[in-house]
Specification:
Elements: H1 3-33, H2 46-73, E1 89-94, E2 97-103, E3 111-114, E4 117-122, H3 127-132, E5 140-143, E6 147-154
Parallel strand pairs: 2-4
Antiparallel strand pairs: 1-2, 1-6, 3-4, 5-6
Helix pairs in contact: 1-2
């Protein structure tokens, strides 16, 4: 499976998240500066709350924008015969189910479908990512009480 295509699909999902964050920021900013948001009493905090919300959206947007730029510049190396690290595409089997994980520095939780296969992005900080990190093809891994699997293929 082409990791470059998977990475492009992940970036596309994150870019859509950026667009949603921007729209949410614009909406919250407009609410904070709207004439009806002006405080009428000292207990009326609608405008203030909207400004906090707008600031939060702006911070999330900035953090996500940095992650997207990092992923755009990232060229995942080949991990065949190497220990699993950032950029590895790992096929596992757990409880009779096969799964594909793409280990990246950011973007954890994103799921994309490429060539008819679902790929889940995980990070080293996730339970599965931490369990897979620095393991080889053919090894077993475990996380949480009782959850275990086998690494079938690494690329």
């Amino acid at each position: 499976m082409d990791k470059g295509r998977i990475l492009k699909a992940v970036v596309a999902v994150l870019e859509e998240d950026l667009r949603r964050q921007m729209a949410a920021n614009v909406s919250a900013s407009a609410g904070a500066t709207h004439g009806e948001a002006k405080a009428e009493t000292k207990w009326d905090t609608c405008g203030l709350e909207q400004s906090y919300l707008a600031r939060g959206h702006a911070q999330q947007f900035a953090a996500l924008a940095v992650q997207v730029e990092e992923l755009r510049a990232f060229a995942p190396p080949d991990f065949s015969g190497k220990l699993i690290g950032a950029g590895a595409l790992v096929e596992t089997e757990m409880g009779g189910e096969r799964m594909l994980f793409f280990l990246l520095k950011c973007g954890g939780g994103v799921e994309v479908e490429v060539d008819g296969q679902e790929v889940s992005v995980i990070t080293e900080a996730s339970p599965v990512g931490a369990a897979l990190l620095a393991k080889n093809e053919g090894e077993s891994y475990s996380f949480r009480a009782g959850s275990a699997g086998k690494i079938l293929r690494v690329q």
